[in-house]
Design brief:
- The protein has 592 residues and is α/β, with parallel strands linked by helices.
- The protein is globular, with a radius of gyration of 26 Å.
- Helix 1 (3-20) runs antiparallel to helix 2 and helix 13 crosses helix 15.
- The mean pLDDT is 92.
- It has a seven-stranded parallel β-sheet. A five-stranded mixed β-sheet has the order 2-4-7-6-5, sandwiched between helices.
- The longest helix has 18 residues, at 3-20.
- The chain folds into four domains: 3-156, DNA polymerase, domain 1; 159-248, Beta Polymerase, domain 2; 255-337, Beta Polymerase, domain 3 (2-Layer Sandwich), CATH 3.30.210.10; 347-365 and 431-586, Alpha-Beta Barrel (TIM Barrel), CATH 3.20.20.140.
Length: 592
């Protein structure tokens, strides 16, 4: 089982235990383990295979949980989960897909109203039954009714890109073991970097299609074979995801990769361009059409003029290669024709990370540990941005504790510079909260001492559109606020964005020189690609931040970069691609 599979199992156990009223520490143990494993890039199987390491070295993983991980990896099942599931009403997990409905609220709905499905719950909201339950009320009922539509949307059952990527990397490594595989790559929505992935497409070049397909069938993660033909097969893999494999000859590998990468809209426009030039494009290559010849899989009277590489496909229709992240059927073909494609941001462009947390609030690692991890990731500077005092559940910092942390950062910077240029510079930062009634949760006389201030909205997310928008714009207009964290507050598959006038937010950011964040957490990816593209068009600079809550959290930067690439962003659009000196020149001057 993959890390994502095991994290999902532990999360489900925590949900069931909370539903049953188990002790808070037992529930928290599974939640912590799920978070630790879900944030890992390195495979748990790799750790188990190393005789010098132990699963118990991981944060929150004791002997009992390590044993459960081993059971899951060895058998694919866990007796405890099967036992807990058998004791649960079938409706529980369906109802918990509704944003805002956790195990305790779901239990009340089932016990009090006997709801057995989302449709039952929707009827109970519409006839006013839900608001009669103690602790719910009319406002909660209205919100639940709104969020049922979100839960019913099949798009919200798709895998996060990061979870799909874990499966893809494991699958590609396994398939490369097959000696009959010449070239291989993953295609589809994964390759285009979409936020979520429905199924996984794999393209292989080989002279022995059956051998390659049988190799996939024998993958330990394959639970069933859905279909198998001469050159294509579909199987059910981890997390019940469908994996479609297509095998082609060397001469068609680029054509197949382009075709199965999509998107459908992009391919339609590309084929239309080909027809204008007397050509046809399909998964086998590019062909010339003779007069009166209809398009077919392989036109009978012409040989392929391109197909071995994607570059050949695009050149055949007079275009440069278009990065997969841009292939969504927008204006990418027109821009390519005019040689106006952006030089998309790369991982190597990132110099700093400007949003992260330590164990002083809700992070897992100390200040020193986060600094050492940042150095290991090759960063030139970071900002420590623990929560402000409003976030009491995270033990947010008041003025006294924050100033003490900043003094510690000053000492660490001095120590890092003792023997010459420092390996890294640590900025004194804070993530302040936008208060429900206006203002920030720390005063300006404190914030003006900071090097970097992130302002975020964590409470009052259900306020009306004009109120939420006003709170964010007020923070943008504060002279000490550097950036707005996760500006729409959404959690992919879990919670919709709060109701905010994002156009007004972008306009205010452009007017004041405040940066907007692309939060790289795979659950957030906020700003989304459309909003980030709009911000670029308005002249707003953005910052990609990991919002890391542990040393492992630095690894999600790649997810934020992928989001920026989908938005067509270049290195110049992102402020943390600059040197620290250049970044400081970009920041708005603080007013006294």
């Amino acid at each position: 089982m993959t890390n994502a599979d095991i994290a999902a199992v532990f999360d489900q156990i925590a949900d069931i235990l909370e539903y049953q009223g188990a002790g808070i520490f037992r529930v928290r143990a599974y939640r912590t383990a799920a978070r630790t494993i879900g944030n890992m890039i390195e495979s748990l199987a790799t750790i188990r295979a190393d005789a010098t390491r132990s699963l118990t070295d991981l944060e929150g993983i004791g002997t009992d949980l390590a044993g459960k991980i081993e059971t899951l990896q060895n058998t694919g099942t866990l007796p405890l989960l099967e036992e807990l599931q058998a004791a649960m009403p079938p409706a529980v997990f369906e109802l918990m897909r509704v944003p805002g409905l956790g195990p305790k609220k779901v239990k009340l709905l089932i016990d009090e109203l006997g709801v057995t499905s989302l449709d039952d719950l929707e009827r109970a909201c519409r006839d006013g039954s839900v608001q009669q339950i103690k602790g719910f009320g009319n406002k909660t009922q209205t919100i639940i009714l709104k969020n049922i539509a979100f839960a019913k949307n099949p798009a919200h059952a798709r895998l996060l890109w990061s979870d799909a990527d874990t499966i893809v990397q494991s699958l590609l490594a396994y398939m490369r073991i097959c000696t009959q595989v010449k070239k291989i790559d993953a295609a589809g929505s994964w390759r285009r970097g979409q936020e979520t992935v429905g199924d996984i497409d794999i393209v292989v070049s080989s002279d022995h299609a059956q051998t390659v397909m049988h190799h996939l069938h024998a993958w330990p993660e394959t639970s069933s074979v859905l279909l198998s033909g001469d050159t294509k097969t579909s199987v059910r893999g981890p997390r019940n995801v469908q994996i479609d494999l297509r095998v082609v000859g060397d001469e068609s590998f680029g054509a197949a990769l382009q075709y199965f990468t999509g998107s459908k809209e992009h391919n339609v426009r590309l084929r239309s361009r080909a027809r204008e030039r007397g050509l046809t494009i399909n998964e086998y290559g590019v062909y010339k059409l003779t007069q009166g010849e209809a398009e077919a899989a392989r036109p009978a009277h012409s040989a392929s003029i391109a197909g071995e590489t994607e570059l050949d496909i695009y050149r055949a229709v007079g275009l440069p290669w278009i990065p997969p992240e841009l292939r969504e059927g927008g204006d990418e073909i027109i821009r390519a024709e005019r040689d106006k494609l952006p030089r998309l941001l790369n991982q190597e462009d990132i110099r700093g990370d400007l949003h992260m947390h330590t164990s002083a609030t809700d992070g897992e690692n100390t200040l020193a540990e986060m600094i050492h991890a940042a150095i290991a990731h090759g960063l030139e500077y970071i900002a420590i941005t623990d929560h402000g005092q409003r976030v009491t559940m995270a033990h947010g910092l008041d003025k006294k504790r924050l100033l003490a942390q900043w003094e510690e950062i000053d000492r660490l910077n001095e120590s890092l510079a003792e023997n010459g240029p420092p390996a890294i510079v640590v900025l004194k930062g804070i993530e302040v909260d936008m208060l429900e009634n206006g203002g920030l949760d720390l005063p300006n006389d404190v914030l003006k001492q900071a090097d970097w201030v992130v302002a975020s909205l964590h409470y009052g997310q259900k306020q009306p559109r004009d109120r939420i928008t006003a709170r964010i714009i007020e923070a943008i207009e504060n002279p000490h606020v550097s950036s707005i964290g996760h500006p729409t507050g959404r959690l992919i598959n879990r919670r919709p964005a709060y109701d905010v006038d994002i156009e007004a937010v972008i306009e205010a950011a452009a007017r004041t020189g405040t940066f907007l964040e692309i939060n790289a957490n795979p659950w957030r990816l906020d700003l989304n690609d459309h909003h980030a593209a709009a911000a670029k068009k308005a002249g707003v600079k953005m910052v990609i931040s990991t919002d890391a809550h542990s040393t492992r959290g630095f690894d999600v930067m790649r997810c934020g970069i992928l989001q920026a690439r989908r938005a067509g962003l270049e290195a110049g659009d992102i402020v943390n691609t600059r040197t620290l000196g250049d970044l400081r020149q970009l920041m708005k001057p603080q007013l006294s």
